[in-house]
Amino acid sequence: LTENFRKFIINCAVYVYNRTLVQCFIWKTSIEVASGQKPDVSYLKVFSCDIYVFISEEIHKNKLTT
What we know:
Elements: H1 3-17, H2 30-35, H3 57-62
């Protein structure tokens, strides 16, 4: 992963964590405790990418024989 993408992922994780319910705050978010208002999280989306697994020809040939 590139350094910029790693920074983006960390920023996203912290952003979401600050909007996650925490038991020690009696199931409130950090932002809710600090500001007194529930954060709007309706716009949050899952980000991902397609992943392909490379299976070498040798393994692929032996697949049916094992």
